[in-house]
Amino acid sequence: MVVFSSCKKDKDEAAAPSKSKTEYLTTAKGWKITGFTIAGQSMFNQYVDACEKSALDVYKTGGSYDHTYADKCDEDYDGTWKLTNNDSQIEIDGDTYKIDELNGSTFKYSETQSSGGASVTTQYIFTAQK
């Protein structure tokens, strides 16, 4: 015997609309670097020192950001950012990167450079602080 049942969802249970990339970027309490790859290989511990691992990037509406070090190992700084190319790229302090992923918990962006006829992609991976 097979029994089918269904229930009606309340309006409150309806899926919330997804946020824009700007909303994801600016509503996190900050972003910490948690990964760094070159040509798909993790180089996090080789290239990201303890000081940088303690840093927090806070993106603000209006196009500015703060880069602060939790352990005060270096001077904090600020800069500018903006989404470009239909929100598929981010420009940070004049440098443009491809947005690979951006949601409520993860922000990944990359750049590809050519050297000697070969292309190498570097990816930066950040985790949202809640």
Automatic annotation (TrEMBL):
Pfam families: Lipocalin_4 (PF13648). Residues 31-109 form the Lipocalin-like domain. It comes from the Bacteria. This is Lipocalin-like domain-containing protein. It comes from Sporocytophaga myxococcoides. The lineage of its organism: Bacteria, Pseudomonadati, Bacteroidota, Cytophagia, Cytophagales.
